[in-house]
Amino acid sequence: TLLWLRDRKISEEINTKKQNNKYLPGFTLQANIIASTDIENISNSDLVIFCVPSDSFREVVVKSRRFIKQNAYLVSATKGIEPEGFKLMSQILEEEFNEEFDTGVLSGPNLANEISRGQLTGTVIASNSDELISDFTDIFSTDSFRVYSNKDPFGVELGGALKNIYAIACGMADGLKAGENTVGIIMTRGLAEMSRFAVKLGADPMTFLGLSGVGDLITTCASPLSRNHQVGKLIGRGSSTEEARKLI
User: Fold this and answer.
1) At 187, which helix (H) or strand (E)?
2) 180-200 and 153-175 are packed helices; what angle lies between their axes, rounded to 10 degrees?
3) Which one of the listed residues 17, 18, 79, 163 is annotated catalytic?
4) Is 163 marked active-site?
5) Which residues are CB-neighbours of 59 under 8 A, at least 6 positions away?
6) Helix pair angle (57-64, 89-96), 10° resolution
7) Angle between helices 227-236 and 153-175 (to 10 degrees)
8) pLDDT value of position 99
9) Rounded to two decimals, what is the model's pTM?
10) Strands 73-76 and 47-50
11) For 30-70, where are the E strands, in sequence order?
12) Which residues in the chain show pLDDT less than 70?
């Protein structure tokens, strides 16, 4: 498994110490995980997972495009929407690769720290390609990590992106000590609002009753491990948006 990243210091730490103390402190990575700051090293990969901030997504896709081999699977694990044109990450993939590759979307209530501890976790791989879904499931399924399939990548991706709004709002309520009733209202009405919005855009309403909808919403809104929740909590306590983003 190859990890491409921009930070040379983190790359060296992963390769020499098998640790990533900035993003996953306290865990030892397996020996077959290799890090690199040279994006051309992805050229042998059969499966490429894009897991970068949404505001850098297109830039990284364009940068990687000429190094990805034919017939590789392309999967987005980024939860967000491009402001210009309201493009989802999978739409950017299809646009930049001219729909010549099988693409998929990975989403769900997946807090990295808990996955790393082997706590029971479910995720969703959504794609129009049965082959991608089957191969992805075989690769990533473990005794503690269950991979569910979905044929509504649009709905899965919208669920992962839209729930961030309500997670920040719940964090703000937490920071303001507004109480559990308030958080319950935000989550419940948030689910109704995001599902109506997504269905209006063509998503399957049943998608939002699954892990990538209500499951991800509950986890992100309620967990202090959620970065969106943390940002909202800091704002609720009086920090500016810019200060809150820097602190997490």
Assistant:
1) helix 180-200
2) 160
3) 163
4) yes
5) none
6) 30
7) 30
8) 83
9) 0.90
10) parallel
11) 34-36, 47-50
12) none
